[in-house]
C-alpha cells in the first residue's frame, strides 16, 4: 500500500456534558502522504485525545478527519476495523496494550496480519522480513514479554509495519529507552519516510527536529 | 492461514494463564462428570434394584408354574398322558432353569397300624433336596421314602420295609398303589427355591384325630401307572434372577406374556407366574431412581454451571486487554469472538471426555459401595448426551461471560480502573425475585404427597430453600456490615475494616458468597439427611428382622425348639426361640402370630420403633405363673383323698403329661375311690416329662352327673420300685388351677396347706386340676390391623389348620411389633405350644440372636439339632434398604453436595486469585503509606474468612432448615413402613461437616492471603500508575 494523506479540519473534542472539558479545540492540519510528523505538547494538552481519534477509537465532537479518502468521523465501526486492519497502523504506549506478552515475537507480527482480508494477505510482507527490517529477526522465537525495552519498541514498530500500512501512528515510541536505542528507533522511523505517513506522538522535545514537521499542542490547540 | 500457528498461540495463552485454565478444566470437568454421572448411576442403580427385586421375590412368584390339564373340561390330566403334555411344553426358556416336573396325588395311606392322610409325590430331582436319615431314595416303581418324623409317630410304626397301600380318598375311587418304604428323609431346606414355596412337610393331627403325614415321595413310574385318579401334573420353571439384566426385561416380559396366552383353546397348559408384578415393582423403583437422579443431577449441574460461569467470567476479564488489542489490530467481529472464546471452548472440549471418564469412575465408586456387587456401570447414550449438554452449557456460559468483554470498546478497556462497580439495583431485584420464586416452589413441593415419583420431587426442595436463603441473606449482609462499619472504623481494627469494605463493594464477592452459601447449604442438608436416612434404615431393619440375627431353622420333630434354645443359651442373654405362624381364617387374628420365648425377648430382640417397649411386651404375653412340674421315669403316682363320690359314676384318674418332644400323653390310672389312696400309671417319661394336670376322666360307661371332691396331696415318680417325691408345689395357690373344662364340667379348685382341693361336677364332659405352668388362656399383644374387630361374640380365638380353636386375651395394643410389624399378634411361644396343638408343626421356627451372641452361634444352633435353613441379619436388611431407589437418590445427593462444595471452593480460589492482582495495587499503596504487612495480611485473611464464614452462617442453617422441612416428605424407602421413623436431621454430622469446612476455609484464606501479599510489593505501585 502506498502512503496516505492525513487531513484534520476544525477538529473539536469535548469530554463530559455536566462539566465539559474541551480536549481539542478547532484543530486543523494537513499531512502529505509519506511525510513524518511529531505531535508534541505538555501533559493534558490533548495529545492522547488526538491519537485515539486518529486511530478511530473514539469519534470527535465536531470536525473532519480524513485518512486518504476515508472520513473517520462518519465511517461505520466495521469500516474503521477494516481501516486499522490494513491502512492505519497504531502503536500505543503500554506493552500489554500493544503486544501479546505470552506470544512470540513472530506470533505478534502474525496476530497483526490476521485482520487483513484473505485477498489482501498475499500483499503483506513475510513476518521475518518485517522483523529483519527493524533488526530483531534473530528474536523471532522469543516471548514478547521477555524482550528488553528497546527490543519491545522495535517489535511494536514491526507489528505496525506488518500490514504495510499507509499511515503509522505511534504514541510515545521512545519512552523508557536510553539515548542510543532512542536514536536508533528514530533513525528507523525516518527511513520509512515516503513509504508511510508517520505520526509520532511524544513529549520528548529532542525528537521534534528529526521529523519533517511538528505540531505542538497547548490546551487543545496547535501552537506552532 | 499459515500452518498451525494460531493453535500454538492458543496453547501459549493457556500456558500463560495456567491456573485459570486448570480451574476451568476442574469446574467444567466436574460439571460434566456430574451431568454424566446421573444417567450412568441411574442405570447402574436400576440394574441393582432390578436384581434386588428379583432376588427378594420368592421362587414361586418369579418362576413359571405350568399346570397340565386335560382338554376339554379342564380336569386333571391322567398321568399317562403327562409325557405327551410335557413334550408340548417349552423345553428351555431363557432366564429359566430346567423345568421341574411333578406328579402329586393326595392319598390315604395304610401300612402297619393306623392309616394317615398325605400326598404321594414325584418331584423331578427331589432326592437332591432331601437328607436321607436312613435307607435310600426310591429308584423304581413300588418304592417310597417317608419322613423321619413320620417314622416316629406312635401307633403307625411305619419302618423301612413296610408296605403302604395308597388310595384316593375321593369317594368312588378304587385305584390303589402298593409301595414299599425304602428310606427315611428330612428336607434339606424347606425354604429351598426347589420347593417353589409349597410346604410339603406339614405333619400334624386334625380335630378329628386324623393324622396327616409329611409327603411320601415315590418314583415317577409309580404315579404314571395310574389312569383315572386326580393326579396333579405340573412343570415348575425355576427363575434364574442373576441372569437378567435391565436390557433383557422387555423380551422377558414379552415371552412370559406369549406363554400365558398360548393355547387359549385347548387350555392344556395353564401358566401362572407373578413375574409381571415383580418386574412392575422393579420398574417402579427404576422410575424413582430416574426421577431422583435427574433432580439431583440438575441441581449439581446448575451449581457447577454457576461456578463455571464465575470462572470463565474471570477468564474473560483477564483476557480483556488482548481482546482490545485484537480490535485495535482491526480484527473483524467474528475473529474477535473466535479469539475470545477459543481458549475456554478448547478447555471445555478437553474437559468433556475427561468429565465422562470421571463420571464413570464416580459411578463405579458409588455403585461399588452400595449397589449389588457386580452391577455393571456402562457409559450410556444418555450419559454422553448429558455430557454434551454440559459442554453446550459451558459454551453458553463462556459466551455470556465473554459478551461484556467482547462488546467493550477499546478505550473503555484501556481506561478501565480495576475498581468494580457496586452490585446494581437490577441484580438485587432479580436476586430477590428468584428467592421469592424458590420459596414458592419450595412450598408447593412440600405439599406433594410423599412416596412415588411426586415425593421424589422433594429432592428439589432443599436446593430451592437454600438458594432462596443464600440470595436474600447475601444481599442483607452488606446492609448489616455497612451498619457496623462506623464502629469498625473508629476502632483500631484496620484489617476488619478493609475486609468488610471489600465484601460490601465487590459484586463478585456477593456472587461468590451466594455460591458458597448454596454449596454449604446443600451439603449441610445432604449430610443431615443422609445421617437421618442411615438411622432410619437401621430402625426399620431392626424392626423387620426382629433381632441382630435371625436364623430360620427346621424343626425336626425331636426336641422342643424352645427348650433346645434354652439349653443352648442358659444365660438367656443372646438366643431366643421364636416362631411365626399364619393361623387359619375364621379366628380373631388377621395377620401373623409371632410367638417368642418371651422371658428372653427384652435381652435378645430389637424394639420395633413406634411399638411398645420389649420389656412391656414380654410382661404382657407371659402367662406362666409357676415352673413346670418335671418328672422322670416310667411310672407316676398321686396321693388323692376322695369323698362325696356318686357310686357307679366315679371318674377315672388320668395323668396329663407332655414329653420332652412336647407330645401330649395321657396315662390312665384306676377309678377314683373314696378315701386316701395312691393312684399310679405307666408313663413314657424315661427322657423326662412335664405333668400338666390330672383329669377326672369320664369312663365310657358313665352317663349323666359325675361329681365329688378330690384332694391331691402328693405326687411321686420314677422307675417302678424307686418312686421319688416330685416338687409339684401342691400347697402353692399360684401353682395349681382348675383345668379347662370339657363340655358342662365344672371344677372349683382351692389350694391350701392341705393340698389341691377340687369340687368337681357336671352332667356331661369332664374336668380336673391343671398345673399353672400351663396357661388357662393365651395372652396376646396385637396390632390394630393384626386383630379382627368383629362383633364381640365371646372371647377372641385363633384357629389352626385343622379347625381347632383356642381362645386368647388381648392384653395390649401396640402399633407395631417386631418382625410382623403392623399386622400381627405377639404371644409367648411356650404358651402357644401348650394350647395350640398344631402350632409346633405348622409354625416356621427361628432362633433370634442378639448382637452379644458368640460368633459361632449359628454352628451351635446346628449342633443343637436344629437344621439351619437361612440366616438373616439386620446388617443385610440395612444393605438391601440402602439399595432402594430413594436411598440411592439421597446418596447421589450427598456425593453431589460434596462435589458441589469442592466446586465452590475451586470457584472461590480462582476468584480470589483473579482479584489478587488488582487488589495488590491497593495493598501496595497502603503499604507505601505505612500500613504494616501484618495488618495487610490480617485484612486479606479477614476478607476471605468473612466471605466464607458468611456462606457458612447462611448455608448451614438453611440446609438444616431445609432438612427439618423436607425430610418428612422426602421418601426414604421404596415402600411404606409402619415403623416409626425419625424425620429430624442428624445434627452432629452437620456440625462435624461445618467444622471441617471452617478449617478448610481458614487454610484457603491464609494460603491465598499469603499469595496476594507476595505480589503486593511496592514496585506494583509504579506499574499501577498511568
Ligand atoms: N476520558 C476523559 N474524560 C474526561 N476528560 C478527559 C478524558 N481524557 C482526557 N481528558 C481531559 O482532556 C484533556 C486532554 O487530555 P489528554 O488528551 O489525555 O492530554 P495529553 O495526552 O496531552 O496529556 C485533559 O484536560 C484531560 O483531563
Ligand atoms: Mg496522554
Question: Can you describe this structure?
Answer:
The complex is a heterodimer of chains A (224) and B (1026). Helices cover 29% and strands 25% of the residues of chain A. Chain A has helices at 47-54, 77-86, 95-98, 105-113, 127-134, 149-161, 179-191, and strands spanning 6-15, 21-31, 36-40, 62-67, 70-71, 88-91, 167-171, 197-201, 213-218, 221-222. In chain A, the strands form two sheets. Chain A has a six-stranded mixed β-sheet, sandwiched between helices. In chain A, strands 2-1-4-5 form a four-stranded antiparallel β-sheet, with helices on one face. In chain A, helix 4 runs parallel beside helix 6 and helix 5 packs across helix 6 (149-161). Chain A is globular. The relative contact order of chain A is 0.22. The model of chain A has no long low-confidence stretch (mean pLDDT 89). In chain B, a hairpin with a 4-residue loop joins strand 1 (64-70) and strand 2 (75-76). With 1026 residues, chain B is α+β, with helices and mostly antiparallel strands. Chain B is elongated. The A-B interface holds A 52, 55, 57-58, 78, 80-86, 90, 92, 96-104, 107, 110-112, 114-116, 143 and B 1-2, 5, 8-9, 12-13, 15-16, 321-322, 324-333, 335, 409-411, 414. Adenosine-5'-diphosphate (ADP) is lined by residues 15-16, 21, 23, 41, 43-49 of chain A.
Amino acid at each position: 500500500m502506498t502512503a496516505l494523506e492525513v487531513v484534520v479540519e476544525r477538529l473539536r473534542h469535548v469530554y463530559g456534558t455536566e462539566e465539559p472539558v474541551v480536549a481539542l479545540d478547532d484543530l486543523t492540519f494537513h499531512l502529505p502522504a509519506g511525510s513524518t510528523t511529531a505531535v508534541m505538547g505538555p501533559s493534558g494538552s490533548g495529545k492522547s485525545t488526538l491519537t485515539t481519534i486518529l486511530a478511530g477509537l473514539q469519534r470527535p465532537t465536531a470536525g473532519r478527519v480524513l485518512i486518504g479518502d476515508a472520513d473517520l468521523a462518519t465511517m461505520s465501526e466495521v469500516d474503521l476495523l477494516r481501516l486499522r486492519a490494513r491502512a492505519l497502523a497504531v502503536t500505543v504506549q503500554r506493552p500489554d496494550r500493544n503486544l501479546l506478552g505470552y506470544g512470540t515475537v513472530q506470533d505478534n507480527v502474525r496476530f497483526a496480519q490476521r485482520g487483513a482480508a484473505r485477498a489482501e494477505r498475499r500483499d503483506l510482507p513475510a513476518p521475518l522480513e518485517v522483523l529483519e527490517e527493524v533488526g530483531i529477526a534473530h528474536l523471532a522465537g522469543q516471548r514478547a514479554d521477555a524482550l528488553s525495552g528497546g527490543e519491545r519498541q522495535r517489535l511494536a514498530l514491526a507489528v505496525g509495519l506488518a500490514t504495510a500500512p499507509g499511515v503509522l501512528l505511534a504514541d510515545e515510541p521512545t519512552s523508557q529507552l536510553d539515548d542510543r536505542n532512542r536514536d536508533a528507533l528514530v533513525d528507523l522511523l525516518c527511513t520509512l519516510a515516503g513509504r508511510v505517513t508517520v505520526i509520532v506522538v511524544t513529549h520528548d522535545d529532542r525528537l521534534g527536529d528529526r521529523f519533517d514537521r511538528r505540531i505542538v499542542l497547548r490546551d487543545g490547540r496547535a501552537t506552532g | 492461514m499459515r500452518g498451525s500457528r494460531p493453535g500454538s498461540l492458543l496453547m501459549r495463552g493457556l500456558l500463560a494463564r495456567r491456573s485459570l485454565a486448570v480451574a476451568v478444566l476442574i469446574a467444567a470437568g466436574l460439571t460434566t462428570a456430574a451431568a454424566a454421572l446421573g444417567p450412568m448411576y441411574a442405570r447402574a442403580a436400576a440394574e441393582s434394584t432390578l436384581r434386588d427385586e428379583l432376588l427378594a421375590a420368592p421362587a414361586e412368584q418369579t418362576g413359571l408354574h405350568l399346570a397340565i390339564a386335560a382338554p376339554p373340561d379342564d380336569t386333571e390330566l391322567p398321568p399317562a398322558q403327562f409325557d405327551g403334555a410335557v413334550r408340548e411344553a417349552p423345553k428351555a426358556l431363557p432366564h429359566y432353569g430346567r423345568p421341574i416336573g411333578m406328579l402329586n396325588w393326595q392319598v390315604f395311606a395304610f401300612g402297619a397300624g393306623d392309616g394317615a392322610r398325605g400326598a404321594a409325590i414325584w418331584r423331578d430331582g427331589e432326592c437332591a433336596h432331601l437328607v436321607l436319615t436312613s435307607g435310600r431314595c426310591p429308584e423304581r416303581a413300588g418304592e417310597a421314602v417317608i419322613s423321619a418324623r413320620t417314622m416316629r409317630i406312635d401307633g403307625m410304626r411305619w419302618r423301612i420295609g413296610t408296605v403302604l397301600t395308597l388310595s384316593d380318598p375321593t369317594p368312588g375311587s378304587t385305584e390303589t398303589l402298593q409301595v414299599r418304604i425304602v428310606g427315611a428323609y428330612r428336607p434339606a431346606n424347606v425354604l429351598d427355591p426347589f420347593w417353589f414355596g409349597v410346604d410339603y412337610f406339614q405333619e400334624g393331627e386334625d380335630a378329628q384325630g386324623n393324622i396327616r403325614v409329611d409327603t411320601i415321595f415315590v418314583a415317577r413310574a409309580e404315579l404314571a401307572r395310574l389312569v383315572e385318579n386326580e393326579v396333579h401334573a405340573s412343570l415348575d420353571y425355576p427363575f434364574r434372577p442373576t441372569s437378567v439384566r435391565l436390557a433383557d426385561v422387555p423380551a422377558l416380559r414379552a415371552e412370559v406374556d406369549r406363554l400365558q396366552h398360548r393355547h387359549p383353546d385347548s387350555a392344556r397348559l395353564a401358566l401362572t407366574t407373578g413375574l409381571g408384578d415383580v418386574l412392575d415393582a422393579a420398574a417402579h423403583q427404576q422410575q424413582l431412581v430416574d426421577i431422583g437422579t435427574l433432580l439431583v443431577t440438575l441441581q449439581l449441574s446448575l451449581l457447577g454451571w454457576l461456578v463455571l460461569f464465575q470462572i470463565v467470567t474471570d477468564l474473560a476479564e483477564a483476557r480483556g486487554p488482548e481482546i482490545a488489542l485484537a480490535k485495535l489490530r482491526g480484527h473483524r467481529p467474528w475473529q474477535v469472538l473466535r479469539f475470545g472464546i477459543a481458549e475456554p471452548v478448547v478447555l471445555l472440549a478437553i474437559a468433556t471426555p475427561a468429565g465422562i471418564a470421571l463420571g464413570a469412575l464416580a459411578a463405579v465408586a458409588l455403585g461399588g459401595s452400595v449397589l449389588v456387587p457386580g452391577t455393571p456401570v456402562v457409559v450410556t447414550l444418555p450419559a454422553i448426551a448429558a455430557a454434551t449438554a454440559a459442554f453446550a452449557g459451558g459454551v453458553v456460559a463462556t459466551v455470556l461471560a465473554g459478551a461484556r468483554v467482547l462488546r467493550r470498546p477499546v478505550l473503555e478497556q484501556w481506561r478501565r480502573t480495576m475498581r468494580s462497580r457496586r452490585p446494581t439495583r437490577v441484580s438485587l431485584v432479580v436476586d430477590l425475585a428468584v428467592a421469592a420464586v424458590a420459596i414458592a416452589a419450595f412450598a408447593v413441593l412440600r405439599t406433594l404427597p410423599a412416596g412415588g415419583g411426586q415425593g421424589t420431587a422433594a429432592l428439589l426442595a432443599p436446593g430451592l430453600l437454600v438458594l432462596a436463603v443464600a440470595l436474600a441473606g447475601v444481599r442483607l449482609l452488606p446492609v448489616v456490615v455497612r451498619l457496623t462499619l462506623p464502629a469498625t472504623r473508629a476502632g483500631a481494627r484496620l484489617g476488619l475494616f478493609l475486609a468488610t469494605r471489600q465484601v460490601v463493594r465487590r459484586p463478585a464477592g456477593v456472587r461468590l458468597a451466594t455460591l458458597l452459601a448454596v454449596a454449604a447449604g446443600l451439603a449441610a442438608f445432604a449430610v443431615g439427611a443422609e445421617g437421618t436416612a442411615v438411622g432410619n434404615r437401621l430402625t426399620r431393619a431392626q424392626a423387620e428382622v426382629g433381632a441382630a440375627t435371625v436364623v430360620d431353622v427346621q424343626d425336626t420333630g425331636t426336641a422342643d425348639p424352645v427348650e433346645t434354645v434354652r439349653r443352648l443359651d442358659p444365660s438367656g442373654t443372646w438366643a431366643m426361640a421364636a416362631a411365626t405362624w399364619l393361623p387359619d381364617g375364621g379366628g380373631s387374628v388377621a395377620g401373623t402370630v409371632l410367638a417368642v420365648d418371651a422371658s428372653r425377648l427384652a435381652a435378645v430382640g430389637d424394639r420395633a420403633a413406634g411399638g411398645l417397649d420389649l420389656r412391656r411386651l414380654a410382661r404382657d404375653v407371659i402367662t406362666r405363673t409357676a415352673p413346670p412340674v418335671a418328672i422322670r421315669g416310667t411310672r407316676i403316682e398321686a396321693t388323692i383323698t376322695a369323698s362325696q363320690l356318686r357310686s357307679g359314676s366315679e371318674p377315672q384318674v388320668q395323668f396329663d403329661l407332655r414329653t420332652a418332644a412336647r407330645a401330649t400323653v395321657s396315662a390312665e390310672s384306676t377309678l377314683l375311690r373314696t378315701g386316701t389312696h395312691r393312684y399310679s400309671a405307666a408313663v413314657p417319661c424315661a427322657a423326662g416329662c412335664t405333668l400338666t394336670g390330672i383329669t377326672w376322666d369320664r369312663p365310657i360307661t358313665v352317663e349323666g352327673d359325675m361329681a365329688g371332691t378330690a384332694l391331691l396331696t402328693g405326687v411321686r415318680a420314677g422307675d417302678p420300685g424307686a418312686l421319688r417325691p416330685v416338687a409339684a408345689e401342691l400347697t402353692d395357690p399360684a401353682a395349681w388351677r382348675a383345668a379347662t373344662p370339657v363340655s358342662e364340667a365344672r371344677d372349683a379348685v382351692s389350694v391350701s396347706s392341705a393340698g389341691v382341693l377340687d369340687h368337681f361336677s357336671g352332667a356331661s364332659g369332664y374336668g380336673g386340676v391343671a398345673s399353672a405352668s400351663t396357661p388357662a388362656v393365651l395372652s396376646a399383644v396385637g396390632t390394630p390391623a393384626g386383630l379382627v374387630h368383629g362383633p364381640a361374640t365371646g372371647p377372641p380365638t385363633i384357629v389352626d389348620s385343622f379347625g381347632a380353636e383356642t381362645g386368647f386375651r388381648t392384653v395390649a395394643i401396640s402399633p407395631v411389633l417386631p418382625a410382623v410389624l403392623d399386622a400381627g399378634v405377639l404371644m409367648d411361644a411356650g404358651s402357644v405350644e401348650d394350647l395350640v396343638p398344631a402350632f409346633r408343626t405348622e409354625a416356621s421356627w427361628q432362633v433370634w440372636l442378639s448382637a452379644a451372641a458368640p460368633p459361632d452361634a449359628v454352628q451351635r444352633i446346628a449342633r443343637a439339632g436344629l437344621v439351619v435353613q437361612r440366616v438373616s441379619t439386620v446388617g443385610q436388611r440395612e444393605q438391601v434398604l440402602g439399595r432402594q431407589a430413594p436411598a440411592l437418590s439421597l446418596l447421589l445427593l450427598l456425593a453431589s453436595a460434596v462435589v458441589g462444595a469442592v466446586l465452590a471452593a475451586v470457584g472461590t480460589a480462582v476468584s480470589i486469585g483473579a482479584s489478587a492482582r488488582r487488589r495488590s495495587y491497593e495493598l501496595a499503596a497502603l503499604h507505601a503509606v505505612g500500613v504494616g504487612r501484618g495488618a495487610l495480611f490480617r485484612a486479606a485473611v479477614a476478607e476471605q474468612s468473612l466471605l466464607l464464614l458468611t456462606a457458612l452462617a447462611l448455608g448451614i442453617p438453611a440446609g438444616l432448615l431445609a432438612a427439618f422441612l423436607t425430610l418428612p416428605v422426602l421418601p426414604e424407602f421404596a415402600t411404606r413402613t409402619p415403623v416409626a421413623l425419625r424425620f429430624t436431621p442428624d445434627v452432629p454430622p452437620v456440625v462435624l461437616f461445618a467444622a471441617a469446612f471452617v478449617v478448610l476455609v481458614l487454610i484457603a484464606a491464609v494460603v491465598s492471603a499469603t499469595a496476594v501479599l507476595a505480589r503486593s510489593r511496592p514496585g506494583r505501585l509504579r506499574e499501577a500508575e498511568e
